[in-house]
Specification:
heterotrimer; A mainly alpha (about 280); B alpha/beta (about 425); C mainly alpha (about 300); B: about 425 residues; D-Maltodextrin-Binding Protein, domain 2; 2 domains; 4-stranded mixed beta sheet; 17 helices; about 50% helix; C: mainly alpha; MetI-like fold; two-stranded antiparallel ribbon; flat; MetI-like_sf (chain A)
Chain lengths: ~280, ~425, ~300
């Protein structure tokens, strides 16, 4: 059955495509300019380009070893997201499924992390990381980014508290332990949300600049945003590299996102609850 | 079930990573003196080629010293390192351009630098590095200042020549305006973008006033400074900076100029490479004052000014690095690689265009730097100028008389 | 919700431990700086609540505080009134698999990945009055009245900031709403279809009530974001927050006082930069905290009624 046949749906669909094409247009303009030479963008911003080339990209790989930064970012991203989801889904399950004294207070407590500028808390964190000898290591950044669980806890708690009790009770009757219930039933059920939380936090971690700036000091350990900032510090002088580095840091993650977005859209719950 | 299978190995791997990195930290102490140096992260793109060469050269001459040069010295990371007692052996500082280095020196974070030969250096350079009679960093050797870039083709077409006096500069701007060319592209929307014009005019027209303010504070009539403000207000009003310049940002203004939509722009020497390499027919001139002399503005830059942390384990090796940065050899490398304008005659300029940038008769006073040197806790004339007086003048909310009064009021605080 | 033994502790403790150690402890450790007079380098002098008194009595500081708070609130209100409803509608369309939903979702989310300075630069290339492609287009088709330096107009500055934040961040809220919709029971929606309920009826009467708590959460998140975001304002208006503070926001105000004089020309280190900066951050914390507590009470009360 076609469920989008109403004229309102058609209009909204049209509006959506319109806004999407505006976004595409802006991104396209970014990509287009990243293929132009710096002097061409500078002196002939609006005119016909004298030629499009991959030079800006080649420069990034040859002079800057972009792949190194990319690999570092990817490594940090993977570990930090796993740690983040692991910690936050546990906490959220504990908060969302169980009723106990202090639950409300804990929920607010877990929000505190979003309310204070990180620049201020950085010195105590630095001293701690220094104490365990992790300065200038990937682990420091992973630990700090992977434990900032305020936002995922807020979102996931909501969803775990909405899961129907019947499923849980049925599993308890089967004699399954608490952790087994969590891993084999509850966690998979929350999958659409977990994927969204995963994606959104992946982007946050991927774009993180300040924490890597403070903790990663060796050039070979730095991340993509640190490279991009090297160019955006004086954008006018480095616009060629800034544009191409932006495109390069976006595209692979975007592809990953498109692959994952199927999962997000899969509408897992409908069947699960009924069955 | 599947989830668990993924989770556990990953968590294990993470623990391994943690412990592996932890143990690595311990080693690395061998006979070689190893120096960790933090370079200026914000200017990495400009400085990288120069410092790669400098470090190579230094390592050649000092095989017993191992250099670990990292572009980690952002203002933030130095702050954090300072407050957590983890400064690297050497790091870049801003000398007397900010009160930071003085604060660090007074609070015992820095090692005073001794036994260096300072014959080559000017008083200004020595002043830059001195706190309470001792020198705390390698000395500056290049100046950054604001200059006028002009489009030669537009100048030719309009039949105007590079101004050699202040009156000519005003005349050239008026002529261009009459011919429907925007005379000067200026980003009125950014604090500093709009300030650059004032830095140039204030040095060329009002160096005497600025110096007298430095000595006598709020006294005097400040006619020269009033002229500077007057000119800025009048030029803003007359559309010398283009019709929408108040809401144009710095990059927009630069692109306006490089696209041939404005005859001149005011910008730092630090951006000269971009203009020269754009393929346009670009010239530069330093703004002449009423006395007909061409002025640059004072402002030693921090390209090669580094300080030593008091906690360093290898003070002698660190001193050697400072000594090398103070040498003509190192400075020549910076000159060749960056195209900065050197402060000393013994450094050779290869590039004709850099020679053009360096074509000035006098170094006038840098109004922002000078004001911040006399600023106190309660009175910050430089901030007032930047964020309040200039935007108000530009929008015609106050006149030059009021601007002068506001500054006086601030100084008397 | 389950009334259960102490099992919940096993779930909460690992997260609580790391979170308390790396997130909460540093915050409280930093917050005490607000009781000192300190420039970040020199000696700390204990002054009690003097910094707070200063912040709320000094007319200049208070004026900046008020202006920044006003602008942050504008961003929040605009987001809550326009962005969130639009995000819900978009999310619902994608959820109900409108034509091209996968592609739409990816495109709308994608600006998230680009760093802020580059976003601002590309908008400069598009909207500058001299070299902007869009303005150029307007003037070519004769709509000269539309040719304006859009990014820099002080009178609408904060709305431009809001638009850019929304342009880049629209997808985040939308993703959460899609996820929330995927969790709701489809039975009621099925029967609504069979009853022939129209688009608005389905959305407002069936979907929205079921994702109510997610909506509350996102309103809270956009409030927190409005109070803590600063890079757009910083890039568009510099550390002073634009001409007459037109794009100043709370976090930029904090940044300006705590680290503001950091610039390529040097400048001055205030005697009390860290002390006053932290005071502002703590005040900002309470401005957010009160709303968060209020929101928790609101959501919980509804939960209790349902439960």
């Amino acid at each position: 059955m076609d469920r989008n046949k109403g004229y309102i749906e058609k209009i909204v669909n049209l509006i959506m495509w319109f806004s999407a094409s505006f976004i595409l247009f802006v991104l396209g303009y970014l990509v287009y300019n990243s293929f132009r030479s710096k002097s061409d963008v500078m002196t002939n911003t609006l005119g016909k380009p004298s030629g499009l080339s991959l030079d800006n990209y080649i420069k990034l790989f040859v002079n800057e070893r972009f792949e190194k930064y990319f690999f570092n970012s990817l490594l940090i991203l993977i570990f930090a997201v796993v740690l983040l989801i692991f910690l936050s889904s546990f906490v959220a399950y504990g908060l969302g499924r169980y009723r106990f004294r202090g639950n409300k207070i804990l929920r607010v407590f877990f929000l505190i992390g979003m309310m204070f500028p990180i620049q201020l808390g950085i010195v105590p964190i630095f001293l701690m990381i220094k104490g365990i000898g992790l300065i200038d290591s990937y682990a420091s950044v992973i630990l700090i980014l992977g434990t900032a669980i305020s936002m995922p806890v807020l979102m996931l708690t909501e969803f775990f508290s909405q899961l129907p009790d019947e499923v849980y009770e049925a599993a308890t009757l089967d004699g399954a332990g608490e952790f087994r219930i969590f891993f084999s039933i509850m966690f998979p059920m929350a999958q659409p949300v977990v994927f969204s939380v995963c994606l959104i936090n992946s982007v946050n971690i991927w774009n993180q600049f300040f924490i890597p700036l403070i903790f990663l000091q060796t050039d070979t350990k730095k991340t993509v945003p640190q490279l991009v900032v090297k160019f955006t510090g004086n954008l006018f002088t480095n616009m060629d590299s800034a544009l191409s580095a932006s495109v390069l840091s976006t595209v692979p993650i975007l592809i990953l996102f498109i692959i994952f977005s199927k999962k997000v859209l899969s509408g897992f719950m409908g069947g699960a609850v009924k069955g | 079930m599947m989830r668990r299978k993924v989770f556990i190995p990953l968590v294990m791997a993470m623990l391994c990573l943690l412990t592996a990195c932890g143990s690595k930290e311990k080693e690395g102490q061998d006979q070689k003196a190893s120096l960790t140096i933090w370079g200026d992260a914000d200017n990495q793109a400009v400085l990288e080629p120069a410092f790669t060469k400098i470090n190579e050269k230094f390592s050649e001459e000092n095989p017993d010293i191992k250099i670990n040069y990292q572009y980690s010295g952002s203002l933030d990371s130095i702050n954090v390192a300072l407050q957590s007692d983890s400064l690297p052996d050497l790091f870049w500082v801003q000398g007397n351009k900010s009160t930071k280095m003085a604060e660090m020196a007074k609070n015992g974070y820095l090692l005073p630098i001794e036994d260096q030969n300072y014959d080559r250096f000017t008083d200004e350079a020595l002043e830059y590095g001195t706190v309470d009679g001792k020198i705390y960093c390698s000395l500056p050797s290049f100046i950054s200042f604001v200059t006028f870039y002009y489009n030669k083709d537009i100048f030719d077409e309009a039949g105007v020549k590079v101004p050699t006096t202040w009156e000519e500069f005003v005349k050239v701007s008026e002529t261009l305006k009459e011919k429907n060319v925007t005379p000067i592209a200026l980003g009125g929307n950014g604090d500093f973008d709009r300030y650059w014009y004032i830095q140039a005019t204030a040095a060329s027209l009002s160096t005497n006033d600025i110096e007298s303010i430095m000595e006598n504070g709020a006294q005097g009539d400040w006619e020269e400074l009033a002229d500077v403000f007057d000119n800025f207000q009048k030029f803003s009003e007359d559309g010398m900076f283009g019709k929408d310049f108040i809401s144009t940002d710095g990059n927009g203004a630069k692109l306006q100029f490089t696209n041939g939509q404005a005859a001149m722009t005011v910008d730092g020497t630090w951006n000269s490479k971009s203009y020269f390499e754009s393929g346009m027919n670009i010239g530069t001139f330093n703004l002449p004052g009423k006395d007909g002399k061409k002025y640059a503005q004072s402002g030693p830059n921090n390209m090669n000014t580094y300080a030593i942390s008091k906690k360093t384990k290898h003070p002698q090796a660190a001193m050697k690095y400072i000594e090398f940065l103070n040498s003509k050899e190192a400075q020549q490398i910076i000159a060749d690689e960056t195209g900065e304008v050197p402060m000393y005659k013994d450094i050779e300029i290869q590039d004709e265009k850099v020679k053009m940038l360096g074509d000035f008769d006098e170094v006038g006073s840098n109004i922002y730097n000078k004001f911040s040197q006399i600023a106190t806790e309660t009175s910050k004339p430089q901030d007032l100028l930047l964020t309040s007086i200039l935007p108000d003048l530009m929008q015609n909310k106050i006149d030059s008389k009021q601007a002068v009064d506001l500054l006086k009021e601030e100084l008397e605080k | 919700m389950l009334k259960n033994k102490k099992t919940y502790l096993f779930f909460i403790i690992p997260g609580l431990f790391f979170y308390a150690l790396f997130v909460v402890y540093p915050i409280f450790s930093a917050a005490q700086i607000s009781l000192f007079k300190w420039n970040g380098i020199g000696e700390k002098v204990f002054v009690g609540f003097q910094n707070y008194i200063e912040l709320f009595t000094n007319p200049i500081l208070l004026g900046q505080f008020g202006n920044a708070l006003k602008n942050s609130l504008i961003i929040f209100i605009m987001t809550a009134c326009f962005m969130i409803p639009l995000q819900i509608i978009y999310a619902y369309m994608i959820y109900s698999k409108t034509r091209g939903s996968k592609l739409l979702q990816s495109i709308i989310f994608s600006p998230q990945f680009i760093s802020t300075p580059v976003i601002v630069f590309i908008f400069t290339l598009l909207l500058d009055s001299n070299i902007g492609a869009i303005n150029n287009f307007f003037s070519k088709i004769g709509l000269n009245f539309l040719v304006k330096p859009w990014l820099g107009l002080p009178s609408i500055g904060i709305y431009i900031v809001w638009l850019m934040i929304s342009w880049a961040g629209f997808g985040v809220g939308m993703m959460y709403f899609i996820a929330a919709m995927n969790m709701i029971s489809t039975d009621s929606l099925e029967s609504a279809y069979l009853d022939g309920a129209g688009f608005w009826k389905r959305l407002l009467l069936i979907v929205v009530p079921q994702i109510r708590n997610t909506i509350f959460n996102l309103i809270l998140i956009s409030y927190i974001t409005a109070m803590t975001i600063f890079d757009y304002s910083y890039i568009l208006g510099g550390v002073s927050g634009g001409v007459d503070g037109s794009v100043d926001v709370m976090s930029l105000f904090f940044y300006r006082i705590a680290f503001g004089d950091n610039n390529p020309l040097g400048g001055n280190l205030s005697e009390n930069s860290m002390g006053m900066g932290t005071t502002i951050a703590v005040s900002l914390f309470f401005i957010i905290f009160i709303v968060a507590v209020f929101q928790m009470i609101l959501v919980f009360r509804k939960d209790d009624i349902n439960g």
